Amino acid sequence: MIYQGKQKIWSDYQKEIPDDHYFYVRSCIRQNLFPASEKTFLDITRNKLGKDFFETEHHTTCGGIAYHCDAIPQETSMTIIARQFALMHKYGYENYVCSCITSFGLYTETLETWHEFPELEAKIADNLWKTCKLEFAKPKYLAHASDIIYKFRNLIAAQAKYKLINKKTGQPLKVVEHIGCHYGKMFPSKSVGGAEYPYVLAGMIEAWGGEVIDYPERRHCCGYGFRQYHVRSNRGYSLSNTHKKFESMEPYKPDMIITNCPGCPYFLDRWQYVISELEGKTYGENGHGIPVFTYEEVAGLVMGYNPWDLGLQMHQVGPEPVLDKMGIPYNPEDKYKGPYGKDIGRPELPSCGCL
Amino acid sequence: MKNIVVIGGGPSGLEASANLHKMGYNVILVEKSPALGGHLAKWDRLFPQGIPAKDVLEGMISNINGVKYFLNANVQSINALGKSYNVILDNGITVLADAVLFATGFDLFKAEKKEEYGYGIYERVITNADLENWFRTKEDSRVANNPKRIGFVHCVGSRDEKAGNRYCSKVCCATAVKQACEIKQEFPDAEVFCFYMDLRMFGRGYEDLYLSAQKEYGVRFIRGRVSEVAENINKELVVKAEDTLSGKPIKVTLDLLVLMAGMQNCSAGAKVAGQIGVAGMETDGFFETKDTIYSLQQSNKPGVFFAGACTGPKTLPDSLHEARAAALAIHNYLQEGEKR
């Protein structure tokens, strides 16, 4: 691999990411799957970096899952999105940042569609007024939350207590970066680094001391894909996609995986359990799986957050091997305690004894 | 004596210059690079018979005996002055030209723009020009490493709206088949695959070349586009494509992948032409001819003519025909001017 070739492409795909004052919109599913990621994002941006990130309880889903499953028509999802943008405007913001990759893709698609078809934009503005009595507005800048952490990656590195470096060997951790399909594949120019060699997570990994792995199935879907998983009869296809990725990354012996999508970390994490049950095979060290993280979790680890405050006990594949390599202290006794010391239960281990 | 400035010292420029010189005109040939020959000078052998490019070029250069030419020279400015054109070169030479011939040729499509193919990212991805250079010099470690499985991707930057080039580059099919046979001659044990959309083997002897590639060399032709290229831990290339004849996606591991980069109008030539209002067409970027049937060598400006690939992708014989036609068109134009 010729690193300079990638740098050339990265330089072609740099987007403007404003420094401050954002209207923040959460994901529908991330709080269930990775409960502390969004909280950590807001804590880092607001309290560690001193930025203004506003959120309101009045925002809703973007409608993305229903849209991509053909459950609602495009105009309905566009009107939902217009309401989100109108809330941003109502609270005095013009920079919009969303936590979800599917939302980011759909917002981008919607803004581009309105740009190409102004008559449709006018119709949606009319729908918005008739249904919500809100004033139509569009964001001046649209960012995904991983764009923000990418933008502040060096500021985070400056405050880092730990690095993506194996403390015992001094070697950088080998990190697989997995980008959500809806981040840059539809509109490469709206991403950091483009569709083929995205830099948004690679930039974080480099800034925090790790080494990025480029493996043959890097671009492949995680296996979620709405019509794969949400259609029950297609779930075997979902699993086979994930299996293909792990088989492809296995020779590189990755220490960890970082993702920037709601579904990807979940499926890359949970399907490892299923693969181990079905085939008795795991892909990490010592019969363990490969720990999978969100970028907010990794930023939190680097900055010295307590791993259990980051919600890492909710992962199927335990994060301990990575914590040990980075030299992050943790109390195993606290792992399965909730916020008030309540036992939250333990994941079932696969019958093969893996993970 | 009438002055004619020929811009571009590739095959078209050389052939037109030789003919105009024989007609008794004062020809000034301007070439921006250090040597004459254009892309031909970098090529090894020519389809369909495999004639050495060097021999053909040497013949052309020997024909321009008596033509004034300047190497490493660029047209700094050009502007109309009555019926003539004032051409100022960056070497300090100024010519008042009675006619100007654009024989500025083509640029190869920059293969790195097709990011999914990994040119400039993965070490064993090369272009048709890189391979031709290796045939000629045997100096390229990417090729020399005894490849066992080799792929050719047709239509890289041609017939591709996403790349901005909707047109067919015309010569890539025959070049790919020629190179596939040649690489089999170099590495007889290698498996060779050609990924194509359509095979446009229109010229005399081209179809025979295609049949020979299959029968004699065992080249495997797969009808379908390559979707992505990646590198595995052994630095081999993992290539995904679709076989549209069997209706299945395929994945092959290769040691070398050759991208058949297509033609685009020469950007340097277009910049010069723009100074006198001669522009590329919106549809394909190549210069607009006076019409599309009868006056292919004439521009919409009096005294400005075209030859070769600056008006669209062409084979070498086609470019040479155009060069001779351009010489005749210029001669007729100047003769008519005398009568007026």
Features:
heterodimer; A: 355 residues; alpha/beta; Glutathione S-transferase Yfyf (Class Pi), Chain A, domain 2; Rossmann fold; 2 domains; 4-stranded parallel sheet; 8 strands; B: 340 residues; FAD/NAD(P)-binding domain; 5-stranded parallel sheet; 20 strands; 28% helix; 28% strand; elongated
Protein described:
The complex is a heterodimer of chains A (355) and B (340). Chain A is an alpha/beta fold and 355 residues long. Chain A has two domains: 19-145, Up-down Bundle (Glutathione S-transferase Yfyf (Class Pi), Chain A, domain 2), CATH 1.20.1050.140; 161-334, Rossmann fold (3-Layer(aba) Sandwich). Chain A is built from 16 helices and eight strands. In chain A, the strands form two sheets. Chain A has a four-stranded parallel beta sheet with strand order 2-1-3-4. Chain A has a four-stranded parallel beta sheet with strand order 6-5-7-8. In chain A, helix 5 (74-90) crosses helix 7. The relative contact order of chain A is 0.13. With 340 residues, chain B is an alpha/beta fold. In chain B, the strands form six sheets. Chain B has a five-stranded parallel beta sheet, covered by helices on one side. Chain B has a five-stranded parallel beta sheet with strand order 11-18-12-13-14. Chain B has a three-stranded antiparallel beta sheet with strand order 6-7-8, with no helix packed on it. In chain B, helix 6 (206-215) links the parallel strand 13 and strand 14 (220-223). In chain B, helix 1 (11-22) packs parallel to helix 2 (53-63) and helix 1 (11-22) packs parallel to helix 8. The longest helix of chain B has 24 residues, at 316-339. Chain B is elongated and about 70 Å long. The interface between A and B is medium-sized, with 18 and 13 residues.
